[in-house]
Amino acid sequence: MARVLVGVKRVIDYAVKIRVKPDKTGVVTDGVKHSMNPFDEIAVEEAVRLKEKKIASEVIAVSCGPAQSQEVLRTALAMGVDKGIHVEITGAEYDTLQPIHVSKILAKLAEKEKADLVIVGKQAIDDDSNQTAQMTAAYLDWPQATFASKIEKGDKDITVTREVDGGLETIKCKMPAVISADLRLNEPRYATLPNIMKAKKKPITKLTPKDLGVDCAPRIQVVSVEDPPTRQAGVVLPDVDALVGKLKEGGHV
Amino acid sequence: MFSRGARQLERRLRIQPLGTSLARAYAAGESALPQLTKDRYPVQRGDYAELTDNHLSFFKNLLGHRVITDASECEPYNIDWIKSVRGYSRCVLKPKTTEEVSKIVSFCNEHKVAICPQGGNTGLVGGSVPVFDEVVLSLSQMNQVLDINDTSGVLVCEAGCILENLDERLSDHGLMMPLDLGAKGSCHIGGNVSTNAGGLRLLRYGNLQGSVLGLEAVKANGEILDCLSTLKKDNTGFHLKHLFIGSEGSLGIVTKVAIQCPPKPKAVNLAFLGLKSFEDILKVLKKAKHELGEILSSCEMIDERSINVCTEHLKVKNPLPDYPFYMLIETHGSNNAHDEEKLNQFLENVMSDGLVLDGTATNEPSKMKNIWELRERITEGLLYDGYVFKYDISLPIENFYSLVPVMKERLGSDAVRISGYGHLGDGNIHLNISVKDFTQEIYKKIEPFVYEYTSKFRGSVSAEHGIGFRKPKYIHYSKSQESVQLMKELKKLMDPKGILNPYKVLP
Known about the structure:
- The complex is a heterodimer of chains A (253) and B (507).
- With 253 residues, chain A is of the alpha/beta class.
- Chain A has helices at 38-52, 69-79, 91-95, 99-112, 132-140, 193-199, 240-249, and strands at residues 2-7, 10-12, 34-36, 56-65, 83-88, 117-121, 144-153, 157-164, 167-174, 177-181, 204-207.
- In chain A, helix 2 crosses helix 6 (193-199) and helix 4 crosses helix 5.
- Among the domains of chain B are: 18-138, Uridine Diphospho-n-acetylenolpyruvylglucosamine Reductase, domain 2 (2-Layer Sandwich), CATH 3.30.43.10; 145-260, Uridine Diphospho-n-acetylenolpyruvylglucosamine Reductase, domain 3, CATH 3.30.465.10; 267-378, 2-Layer Sandwich (Alpha-Beta Plaits).
- In chain B, 36% of the residues lie in helices and 19% in strands.
- Chain B has a seven-stranded antiparallel β-sheet with strand order 13-10-12-11-15-16-14, with helices on both faces. A five-stranded antiparallel β-sheet of chain B has the order 5-6-9-7-8. In chain B, strands 1-2-4-3 form a four-stranded mixed β-sheet.
- The termini of chain B are far apart.
- The A-B interface holds A 13-18, 27, 31, 33, 35-36, 38-39, 75, 123-128, 183, 187, 189-194, 196-197, 225 and B 1-6, 8-10, 12, 15, 168, 266, 271-273, 317, 319-320, 344, 347-348, 351, 356, 358-369.
């Protein structure tokens, strides 16, 4: 049976309105509700289902970030993950944490935990990078199956249906492998009360990047973070002729 | 940032303001316009002037293009959104200022033209649409926020502000609206005040009679009454503002309001629970009040048939399928660690007592939003059932749910669905009886029985929706003859020609 490592990122909840800091160095995070990156939630759900189908023997969730990252690990544990690993990264290092750092951490942990599968969300809804799965696979030199909308386990390999431009692509790859979860892979469950209670007793191991020999020194500098341009107000035109005129003026007809 | 991923999720979770879904619900049933109110109900047109070109030219001089006369454009203003009533007004007015409202009302009073004031048109008792050809006075263009005071927490705004927009504006100041209801994306604060709307958190934040500090209203003779106090305490003479809170536009038109707004809670938690019986719900309610104490902000119940409306018709996902009863328990507080501990302890207790069979709890805004949809969108989903008889009843808590089984026995297969849900913490149940088509026989089987039953337990025949057009003849089930008489005298005094929202509120 397979051991599965899942990456879970703590992001600003998507129902919360995002505000840019006045000094344009980033977005306001203080006092703002965070939750698990929804695509990572799909990754967790898939891992837990693999366990329920007796394909996976153990599911381990990893989150990189400040102390509050343990909250998303608790959510993962309540959904059915067996244990959590919190890689603590704070301050300036956390502010400039990039997929390259996280994938190095995930690769190290995959080796350490003898994982057969690494599953992560295809992207996080805060930076929209869509890089972690790919780079993790590169560091491990494992096959990668990104944008998965269906995963089937064979004897020694897995068959993954991928969402590609214009349709679906089905690929087969050897294990161990890295998979990134797309939106239609599954619908994540709500943790039920008994499982929320049980999750409190499940272990969370705390590590630092140093423990794993990963250097999280910043590689980028944030120059400026700005709001998207606001939509211009429309105009009401009195009749069709005026509309046609305007369209011609703008070169649309 | 927050682009592609977030947009995909929004599509999947169908996050949309109620306004859009209402528009869709309209479109869905466009082919089947409800019967005209004058044909469905035995009601006589009052002795009001018919609209003339002279009237129209006065309105057009005053408002310019903010006068709608085209029949199809007037249609949405003539039909309530649950499509239970339909008027045939050919004149919709959209004033932008109190002075314009004053001039309109004064003119109408002089010429005896009947007026139907309208906010977001989300009412459920036919109070906000014309019965015949009354001129519709839409407050939708009066949507300015005039002042938000961070320290006192007082909001002053015009009547046509949409509730949800106000809540968003207040959120920048660390404040929130003291009321929240399913129609928040469409309903106007002026309508909320005029109907004394209740909603999901009345249990914690009280009703509008407490939260409204002051208001400005236009009387039937066009006079502008300035009661726009922002004081918490002001015992100087009669509290005239109360004449306009809950009188459904029959005594005057509310144009501005001053509202006391509580601080926006730093910590919000929501539990969604599955239970086996109403007896257990009562036990959990009692425990919630005692154990959650000051942080309890909402306590709602939903029966299985109500929740199925959302899952079947609107495809909202229910995380706990197939329990006969559900409860939503929400907490508002200032410290999440404290609130979560309290809530978890409470949940552990009710689980180990076997009162709650299963449940889920979360403080993630997106998940809480999804769970609330199961409660807030029931009214919308019911539209897909056919015709819905809606009752909004206060009953002593022990009898809260008893009407549902009684009606089931009484109607049997005549009804498609008989469901009950509502504000358990406030003893206010929404009883909904869905039928394939409206027929007089079914109507007579239900009314006045529902009201007689309510009266027997000294309940209220309208807990929060108001009287509107649908219930004036049942007002006596909840109010004494003397009370109704005094209401009539007040109406006569304030609106001698009866031009304000006629055929409604009073028998």
